[in-house]
Amino acid sequence: MGVNLRELVAPIKMTVELSELAGRVIAIDAYNALYQFLAIIRQRDGTPLIDAYGRITSHLNGLFYRTINLLEAGVKPVYVFDGKPPELKAAELEARMRQKEIARVKYEEALARGDLEEARIYAQQTSMLTKPMVEDAKKLLDYMGIPWVQAPSEGEAQAAYMTRKGDVWASASQDYDSLLFGTTRLVRNLTITGRRKLPRKNVYVEVKPEVIELESLLKHHGLTREQLVYIAILVGTDYNPGGVKGVGIKRALRLVKELKELDAILRALGSPKFPADPHKIAEVFLKPEVTDDYTLEWREPDRDKIIEFLCEEHSFSPKRVENALERAEKAYKKTFGQVSLDAWFS
Fold first, then answer.
1. Which of 20, 18, 157, 21 is nearest to 85 (CA)?
2. Model's pTM, two decimal places?
């Protein structure tokens, strides 16, 4: 779920057209994107897409077609996969599993009474990403010629590190945690752009990418990155869900700006209890485990392997896949054949 910094970023975020990101290398939080696909790409009653063998394919559907959309827009994507989560995240992961089970029960109840819209909402909350599903996603990216990076721990931390190295222009995720991990730029809504229906409402909105620059955010509020992390700890992170009782984003900002240091802030709040040492929580964001063991290389899609994998193994429509491959091949030739490497980092 990540930390909620919406109020802090609101004054400085920039809404852009997808086309404005052309010529940019962007590191996408793979798990975040795949969970989005699993939640959104479903049938009317909330059932995910499946192949002839009963295996879920919503994540592959989203990864294939929406990555092609990015290529057509001139974006040069790289996907970053999570590794082993920090031990401090164990309690949050257990809580998420419990929530999924509750959502599953409510989904079945909604189906039983014929409320398909309610059923779909709860179904989206039951999404599970298994190891075979992740391996299939990596395999598809290999066949598409799209690079992916295996992070040793949090994918967002690895993507943020890659922005600071200058290997990518921005990281992409729906979560604001990327800012805490030090990404130079965060792009939200990258893989879900387009027309979307609001839950429980017959209203559609146009979702566009949002760009948030860390330096602009810190300068606007007069903060250091460390202090931004302190704010997150006060309002709640994946490593201390719930934060400090009675402390919202505005009060957290005021306390951090007035008192500066974490110990002074905690003393002023009466030394509240945390599930772990708050300094250890801060360290997860400020000194995350990352790697330099990656290579960013884009290749032309392997048509035969993609057709075999998607159509023969996972029951995708051959006609749709063929049409998408034509788009992908044209996008590759247009983008990678005419643009010099230096242009991607300008």
1. 157
2. 0.90
